[in-house]
Design goal:
Layout (H helix, E strand, L loop, with lengths): L1 H20 L22 E5 L6 H13 L2 E4 L10 H14 L17 E9 L2 E2 L1 H8 L7 E8 L6 H11 L3 E2 L3 E4 L14 H11 L1
Parallel strand pairs: 1-2, 1-3, 3-5, 5-6, 5-7
Antiparallel strand pairs: 3-4
């Protein structure tokens, strides 16, 4: 019995040694990259993708007006068609296949920012492929990421997926939020989420 306890103790000591000397042997967690800057001192980048009614773009612009920072639209190298029905079909195929389109250059260097606010519409219960590409291909260690999404009543797993991707790439995620808009094709740009909720969310980012 003493021999067994001795082996266990030796194993624990060895594991502790690896933890101390081999950072690559342990998972990189958002807590290890905690941001110490107050919000007022953070340099902010707001990125978004918007295709039809421009709801995601509208919220991104409201955020920039209130919080400041740089505003950038995410664009695929191969643009989507103006044919809505065609893009609906294409979007479903891309989402179900986990497609990540190549993106045009942002025109800015992410290294220069402390906080990145990321907006996406909902495509077939998931984030738009363009945003999937952005969140999958960048290193967010040492940064705060604020995800938001717009939907017409079917939020799916968008926020959960965005948080998971951002944290997986090293981000500290804060204030993730979903905004609901009308599903009436004549009023796609009418926000159902109370304006007060949007305003409070923006205040929390200041």
């Amino acid at each position: 019995m003493k021999k067994i306890f001795g082996i266990l103790a030796l194993g624990l000591v060895y594991a502790g040694f690896l933890w101390a000397v081999c950072p690559g042997c342990r998972a990189n967690t958002p807590q290890e990259n905690a941001i110490i800057k107050p919000k007022s001192e953070m340099k902010t980048l707001i990125v978004y993708f918007s295709y039809t009614a421009g709801n995601t773009k509208c919220i991104a612009e409201k955020v920039q007006k209130a919080v400041g920072g740089d505003l950038v639209s995410l664009e695929p190298v191969k643009p989507y068609s103006d044919d809505y029905e065609k893009v609906v079909k294409q979007g479903r195929e891309e989402v179900e296949g986990g497609y990540k389109p190549e993106l045009k250059s942002l025109g800015v260097d992410l290294e220069n920012y402390d906080r990145i606010i990321v907006g996406t519409p909902t495509w077939w219960y998931r984030m738009a492929p363009v945003v999937l590409s952005f969140l999958s291909s960048n290193d967010f260690r040492g940064k705060v990421v604020v995800p938001f999404m717009t939907n017409a009543g079917w939020p799916g797993s968008v926020i959960t997926d965005m948080v998971s991707l951002a944290e997986g790439n090293g981000a500290k995620v804060e204030h993730a939020h979903a905004f609901k808009f009308s599903s009436d094709e004549k009023h796609f740009d009418r926000m159902v989420t109370p304006v007060e909720e949007l305003e409070q969310w923006i205040d929390d980012l200041k």
